[in-house]
Amino acid sequence: MAVEVGTKVTGKVTGITKFGAFVELGDGKTGLVHISEVSDAYVKDIHDVLHVGEPVTVKVLSIQDGKIGLSIRKAVDKPQQREHESNHHEGRQVSSPHQGNNRFQGGARNGGNHFGHKAQQPAKGDFDAMMSGYLKESEDRLSVLRRNTEGKRGGRGGRRS
């Protein structure tokens, strides 16, 4: 059977490393399932999920220079969720990382936070946008704190005359 990108293939786990698992696909071909492609859930130790000799169904993600990139989690058929159901996972509600953390969200007066900035809500599931928004907010908060403590006695790096 020819191995092509996008196809689902049944294989057998032949080796496990700390970064993934090697899967024999037949015809003497072996591919790698990266640890991030093993499961939708976080995998701390791949040995908890896969074992050598275990049969697995994988999806071929890429073939470059004879190296075959595989995914177990993309080979699993998942039912399509409607948008309002995307906040629930296996019957329990999944909270956003900022839900319940109202330490800096007292800006109900104008929809912003304590520093007068509008709270940014990145698109759901867009981790990179969420992280860049978080970093920007952190840098803004840090600069405001530095500015406020700079002129006070005992502040770090304050003005000295």
From TrEMBL:
GO terms for biological process: translation. Residues 74-92, 136-153 have a biased composition (Basic and acidic residues). Residues 74-161 are annotated as: Disordered. Residues 6-73 form the S1 motif domain. InterPro entries: NA-bd_OB-fold (IPR012340), Ribos_protein_bS1-like (IPR050437), S1_domain (IPR003029). PROSITE patterns: S1 (PS50126). This is RNA-binding protein. Pfam families: S1. PANTHER family: 30S RIBOSOMAL PROTEIN S1. Residues 93-104 have a biased composition (Polar residues). GO terms for cellular component: cytoplasm. GO terms for molecular function: mRNA binding; structural constituent of ribosome.
